[in-house]
Amino acid sequence: MTAPAIHLWRLLTWGRTLARHGALSGIERDPNTPAAVRRLCRIARFGARVPTTPAYATALQEIGPAAIKFGQTLATRPDIVGDAAAKDLLRLQDALPPVPFAIIEKAMAASFGRPLAELYRSIDPVPVGAASIAQVHRAVTLEGRDVAVKVLRPGVEEEFARAIETYQWAAAQLESMGGELARLQPRLVIETFKRWTARELDLRREAASASELAEGMVAEPDFTIPQIDWARTTGRVMTLEWVNGIKLSNREALVAAGHNPARLAHVLVHAFLRQAIAEGFFHADLHQGNLFALPGDRLAAIDFGIMGRIDRRARVWLAEILYGLITGNYRRVAEIHFEAGYVPPHHNVAEFATALRAVGEPMRGMAVKDMSVGNMLDGLFNITRDFDMKTQPHLLLLQKTMVMVEGVATGLDPDINMWETAAPFVREWIRTELGPEAYVADRLVTDLRTLARLPDLIRNIERRYPKPGGAPPAPPLKDIEPVRIGGGWRYAMVAVVAGAASAAATWALLH
Q: For residue 408, which of 307, 276, 266 has the smallest C-alpha distance?
């Protein structure tokens, strides 16, 4: 187990980098920040030239790959880092210098356990993309098929393991301070980040996600997923079909190729809604660089490292919430939040409905093209503190993706509106899932299953059926002892940290 002093040193080093880019200013100014955290921020920036405008993304890119991925996680948490920081973090491009091909080639051969000549006819040594976790090369199989080969960077697993261990330790210290920090559940944030990276650090899991998503998108033929080449996929190498398309970020090329941007936007929105609401399994990184336009105004997605999952009960609640906001039925939206357990029962349903109305009504008077799902969801986050709502990571990931999809769609078609496009889909899904036929079928299945399990239900009712909530059960969190000021050695540690900070500041000034 890593000693607290090592965690402190890592945090001080990272904090120094963040301070030089002004990324700690918001934490220092926030009245909800505990005094102990503000003191550490001041120590970290001692002697640094702090810019007026914070550059959060730049700071995390400088710290390293794990910090880049963590920044992408924080981009989904405007309730923690603030709107300005979340927007800046969205520009993390995950771009790093590529690993030399000789090293990549050796790593691939070791992963397959045989020479690459037995698998590929050729591999382009120049990568088409290099990110924090992996890089991608274009190749041709022995059968003559064009493929993309994604290879993990050597040593990336060890680097992430060290960083996540320190993140867990720091989150435990913050949560132990109680108050607003406990409500934001930083330990659960880190656990969510750990699960994301676990999928990305095992390319077989990413390949499985792509395969599962492809099965769920059969009903959307205009939205395609590249086929996985399982014979050439391992935990460290993934081979998949090469996508011959135009990135959605290149609008001029799309128009020149004869694509209809409005049609592409419509396909994207419908595909996302089917993933999130109908299937409950969605691509959570649908930015312009991961989407390609294909002939016939079809779309293809790549990069399946970050995926979101929502169970059926939460999807029903989500659909009702969206439809209630679309139609102005704020009372029903408020009731759903209480039924799902998002709002503690000691609050008043009517008061919460009024708060929701304050967010929704101003938008109902806007022109259709001026309304924004992103703005609506940002408004909802602003009332969470007043009603003691604990953060729900699965819904925050969905919110981040929805805002991202809306941004890509409006970039293609400025007149599109997510509300208008989503309403028919959501209305039909609610009718199918909550209509009388669905109710009778669900009731029959539920009753039969209950009768079959009656003996176990009687013996284990309390253990097996806790009070239902809208969020999936939280994963077990690692036991970490908080460091509390009180013992002499702890004062000595603070002195050592302060001395190290002063030495670092002096070195920075002299160099």
A: 266
In this predicted structure, the answer to whether residue 485 has a pLDDT above a threshold of 90 is no
pLDDT > 90? residue 231: yes
> Which string of DSSP letters, residue by residue, matches 244-283?
--EETT-HHHHHHTT--HHHHHHHHHHHHHIIIIIISEEE
Instruction: Please report, for residues 90, 382, 469, the alpha-carbon distance to residue 377 in angstroms, rounded to integers and kept in the order given.
Output: 17, 9, 21
Structure tokens that stand for 471 in this block: 């969020």
Catalytic residue among 79, 88, 222, 285: 285
- Token reading at 211: 């395969």
Contact 398, 382 (CB under 8 A): no
For residue 213, the SS3 value is helix
Within 10 A of 24 (CB to CB), how many other CB atoms are there?
A: 26
Contact 285, 305 (CB under 8 A): yes
Give the integer Cα–Cα distance in Å for 477 and 6: 21
Work out whether the CA dihedral 284, 285, 288, 291 comes out positive or negative: negative
Query: Would you state the torsion angle of the CA atoms of residues 271, 277, 278, 281, taken in this order, to the nearest 10 degrees?
Result: 80
For the cut 50, the answer to whether the pLDDT of residue 495 exceeds it is no
Would you give the DSSP letter of residue 26?
Answer: H
The total of other beta-carbon atoms located within 10 Å of residue 455's CB is: 8
* Global pTM value: 0.71
Measured distance CA(315)–CA(279) in Å, rounded: 9
- Per the structure block, which two tokens stand in for 363? 């938008």
Query: Residue 287 pLDDT more than 80?
Result: yes
Q: What is the pLDDT of residues 25-44, one digit of tens each?
A: 777 777 767 777 777 777 77
Measured in whole angstroms, how far is the alpha carbon of residue 472 from the centre of its chain?
A: 16
Strand partners, 291: 301
Give per-residue burial for 297-317: e unless 16+ CB within 10 Å, then b. bbbbbbbbbbbbbbeeebbbb
β-bridge mates for residue 247, sequence order = 292
| 65-74 and 186-200 helices, crossing angle to 10° | 120
Structural contact between residues 477 and 187, judged by C-beta atoms closer than 8 angstroms:
yes
Determine whether 83 is an active site residue: no
Q: How far is residue 440's CA from residue 423's CA, in Å, rounded to a whole number?
A: 25
Top-confidence range, 32-41, 253-262, 364-373, 443-452? 253-262
- Assign 3-class secondary structure to 368-394: HHHCCHHHHHHHHHHCCCCCCCCCCHH
Cite the DSSP H helix spans in 343-435: 349-364, 373-382, 393-412, 418-434
How far is 349 from 38, CA to CA, in rounded Å? 36
| pLDDT score for 510 | 45
Identify whether the C-beta of residue 426 lies closer than 8 Å to the C-beta of residue 266. no
